[in-house]
Specification:
five-stranded mixed β-sheet; three-stranded mixed β-sheet; 15 helices; 17 strands; globular
C-alpha cells in the first residue's frame, strides 16, 4: 500500500482559534478533505504536516522542512496537498523538489484542487505554469504590500511587529500606540537618571542590579513572540540599550519608520535606507517624555560624549562616528601596551556575533587625515567661489548623465526580464530544447544580476550628487575654514564627516580599508 504524507498550510491568522495552540478551522478543513481523498485511493496515511500562519514563500516553515527531511529518508512515497501553492509559491522550489528531488527520491506529488500529479505524463506543463503564476503573484503581492505599508507610515500609523519599549499596541485602534505604564516608568527613570548625571553604563548597571527586565526580556515575560539573537542576554540591560532609548523620538510622540527594507521579496535580509528616505510623522501618539527634557538630553549627550572621550582617551576624535564594517557596531577605545586602539563594541560582549575589528587609533587618524588633505587640496589652487561654481556645473552635468544612465539601465533590465519570462514560456511549450533553455537562462540571469547591480550603483550615485548640490554652500564654508589642514580635531571631524566604516582584512594581516561618508 502507498504511504502518503499530507501537507496543509494557512497563511493568514485565523479568527476561529479557541486558543493559540489550536489548529485553525481552515487547516482542519484541509486535513479532512485530504484524509478523505487518501482513503478513497486506499493510501496509508503516514502523517499530517501542518504549518499555520506561514506564507508560501517562507522557507523556514517547520512542518514543511520536516516533511522534506522525511521525504529524503523515504518514509512515504506520496505528498498530498490541497493545491500546489499550499506546498510553495516559489517557482524555484517547484523545480527543485516537485520536478527534480521528489522523482529522485521516488516520491509522487499530488494536489487535489488544481489536478497536479507528477505520475501523469504531460501534467508537468500545467504545474510549471501554476508555479510561474504563483511566482508572479508573490512579486505583485510584495509590491502591493510595500505601497500599503508606505501609505500607513506616511499617515502616522505604527506597523512594526512589536511596540517600542514603553508602549503597547492599541487594541481599539490599529496602528496606534498607547502607553504601557510599567515600562514607561522605567523609560522616565532612565531620562531622569541621565539628566541628573548618571552615565549610560551606570544606568544599565543600576537597572540590572534591581532586576528590571530589559526590553527583550520584558516582551518575552509578557508572552510576546519576540526572538532575540542573544537569548542569554535578553533579560540584561546594556549601555547601547540605554542609548537607543535616550535618542528615540518615539518617546516624544513621533514615529520615524522605513529605516530598513528587505533586499527582495524572497529574502528577509534587510539593509539600511538612506536617511532622506525615512518616513517621519510627528505627534502620532501620547508622549512619555516632555520635548524640552528630550532636547536637553540630546544636548547633554553631545557635550558629555566629547568631554568623556577627551578625558578617557586623550581625544578620540572619531567617537560616535566610526563603525565596524562586519556587524555595524560602533568602535570603542581600548588601551593596550600604552597604545590606543579602536575595537568593535559588540565583540566585547559576544565574540560569536562578530569576529571584531581591532585597529590602532593612530593608523585610522593618519589615513583619515590623508584623505581629508586630498579632498581639500582639490580646492587649494582656486578661489572658493570659483570652486563652488565649478563644482556646481560639474555636479549638474554628472547628475544629468547619471539620470540618462539610470533610464537606460532600467530599460535594459526590463528587456532582460521580459526575455526571461518569454524563455520560460517557450520552455513550457517545448518550443526550445532543455539544453538551449538552460544555457540561455544562465546568460539572462547573469545579465539581470549585472544590470540590477549597475542600477543600484547608479541610483546611489544620483542620491549622493543630489545631496552634494543641495549642500554646496555649506561645503564651501567648511572647505574655506579648513583649507590648510595639518591636524584633526573633534569639531573638525563633525564638520567634515558623517560616519566612517572600517572594513578589516578577513585574514591574519592587520590591513584595513576605510569607507568615509562626507558631510558634503
Amino acid at each position: 500500500m502507498d504511504k502518503v504524507a499530507i501537507y496543509c498550510r494557512l497563511s493568514e491568522e485565523d479568527k476561529n482559534k479557541s486558543c493559540e495552540t489550536d489548529d485553525s478551522e481552515s487547516i482542519k478543513n484541509q486535513k479532512a478533505m485530504l484524509t478523505q481523498y487518501a482513503n478513497e485511493h486506499f493510501w496509508e496515511i503516514y502523517g499530517v504536516y501542518s504549518d499555520d500562519d506561514y506564507t508560501g514563500s517562507d522557507r523556514s516553515r517547520p512542518a514543511f522542512n520536516r516533511l522534506l527531511k522525511d521525504a529524503e529518508e523515504g518514509r512515504f512515497n506520496i505528498v498530498l496537498c490541497k493545491t500546489q501553492s499550499r506546498f510553495t509559491r516559489e517557482l524555484e522550489l517547484v523545480e527543485k523538489y516537485i520536478h527534480y528531488l521528489f522523482p529522485l527520491w521516488g516520491i509522487r506529488f499530488v494536489s487535489v484542487v488544481d489536478n497536479a500529479d507528477t505520475s501523469v505524463r504531460g501534467n508537468k506543463k500545467s504545474r510549471q505554469i501554476n508555479g510561474l503564476i504563483n511566482e508572479w503573484y508573490l512579486e505583485d503581492m510584495s509590491e502591493n504590500i510595500k505601497a500599503v505599508l508606505t501609505n500607513r507610515r506616511k499617515n502616522g500609523l505604527f506597523i512594526g511587529a512589536f511596540a517600542p519599549y514603553g508602549y503597547k499596541k492599541d487594541p481599539e485602534r490599529k496602528g496606534h500606540l498607547i502607553i504601557d505604564p510599567e515600562a514607561a516608568a522605567v523609560v522616565r527613570d532612565i531620562f531622569d537618571m541621565y539628566i541628573n548625571g548618571s552615565g549610560r553604563t551606570a544606568i544599565a548597571r543600576y537597572l540590572n542590579e534591581r532586576g528590571v527586565l530589559s526590553p527583550a526580556g520584558y516582551k518575552a515575560a509578557n508572552g510576546e513572540k519576540y526572538r532575540n539573537t542573544s537569548k542569554s542576554e535578553e533579560a540584561k540591560w546594556h549601555d547601547w540599550t540605554v542609548t537607543a532609548i535616550l535618542h528615540n523620538e518615539v518617546y516624544i510622540g513621533n514615529l520615524i519608520q522605513n529605516r530598513y527594507h528587505s533586499i527582495s521579496y524572497k529574502s528577509k535580509i534587510k539593509k539600511p535606507v538612506p536617511k532622506n528616505e525615512w518616513i517621519r510623522a510627528e505627534n502620532t501618539h501620547e508622549p512619555i517624555i516632555d520635548k524640552e527634557i528630550f532636547r536637553a538630553v540630546q544636548n547633554l549627550s553631545a557635550g558629555r560624549t566629547k568631554s568623556n572621550v577627551i578625558k578617557r582617551t586623550g581625544g578620540n576624535v572619531f567617537s560616535g562616528k566610526i563603525f565596524c564594517g562586519k556587524c555595524g557596531s560602533a568602535l570603542r577605545t581600548s588601551v593596550c601596551n600604552h597604545k590606543l586602539y579602536l575595537r568593535c563594541g559588540r565583540k566585547l560582549y559576544d565574540r560569536n556575533i562578530c569576529e571584531g575589528t581591532y585597529v590602532l587609533y593612530d593608523r585610522i587618524l593618519s589615513e583619515v587625515l590623508s584623505q581629508m588633505r586630498k579632498l581639500t587640496a582639490e580646492f587649494s589652487n582656486i578661489g572658493i567661489i570659483k570652486a563652488n561654481t565649478v563644482f556646481h556645473d560639474a555636479a549638474e552635468n554628472s547628475l544629468q548623465s547619471v539620470r540618462k544612465s539610470i533610464d537606460e539601465a532600467k530599460r535594459q533590465l526590463k528587456d532582460t526580464q521580459n526575455c526571461i519570462k518569454k524563455l520560460y514560456i517557450d520552455n513550457v511549450k517545448e518550443d526550445i530544447t532543455s539544453e538551449m533553455y538552460s544555457r540561455l537562462m544562465k546568460e539572462f540571469a547573469a545579465d539581470e544580476a549585472r544590470l540590477s547591480g549597475i542600477l543600484e550603483e547608479l541610483q546611489n550615485k544620483k542620491i549622493s550628487i543630489e545631496y552634494a548640490i543641495r549642500n554646496r554652500d555649506d561645503s564651501s564654508e567648511i572647505i574655506q575654514k579648513y583649507l590648510e589642514l595639518d591636524s584633526l580635531g573633534f569639531e573638525m571631524v563633525r564638520s567634515f564627516i558623517d560616519r566612517i566604516v572600517v572594513h578589516k582584512d578577513t585574514g591574519k594581516s592587520r590591513s584595513f580599508t576605510l569607507e568615509i561618508f562626507w558631510n558634503f
